[in-house]
Amino acid sequence: MTPQAEQLKKSKIFTVFDGILITVVLILCLLPLFFQLIVPTKKGKSVKITHNGTSTIYSLSQNRIVEIDGAVIKIEDGKVFFESNDCPTKQCVHTGKIYNAGDSAICMPKDIRVEIVGDGFDGSSK
Ligand SMILES: [Zn+2]
Questions:
Q1: Nearest alpha-carbon partner for 46 in 86, 12, 75
Q2: Which pLDDT does position 16 carry in this prediction?
Q3: Which pTM value belongs to this model?
Q4: How much distance in Å is there from the Cα of 95 to the middle of ligand 1?
Q5: Residues near 121 by Cβ (< 8 Å), separated by ≥ 6?
């Protein structure tokens, strides 16, 4: 085998490896895209705040502060949480940020229920 032929063979092998490498890189690049497509459907879109039996639905995509009966509920970056509350237990404040559909934060003493809701409450009817 001439050195040139060996060189050619080597470069061919590298081409195959390059092909595999490119394929792997492409898959790695596409994976986050797939996750991005899947994750938003799981994420909650709106938040339902119920106080004394009355519910109000707010969009999670809009940052806002909702004050009910001394409780300060903050909607920020698609998450919602009791920022502060003057209830005795503060359990609602300790619940922290919620953002998945079905998650809820409840203030028992004040009868405030904050629930993340998914499809059907996305506020698109505006
Ligand atoms: Zn509370």
A1: 75
A2: 86
A3: 0.62
A4: 9
A5: 45, 46, 48, 57
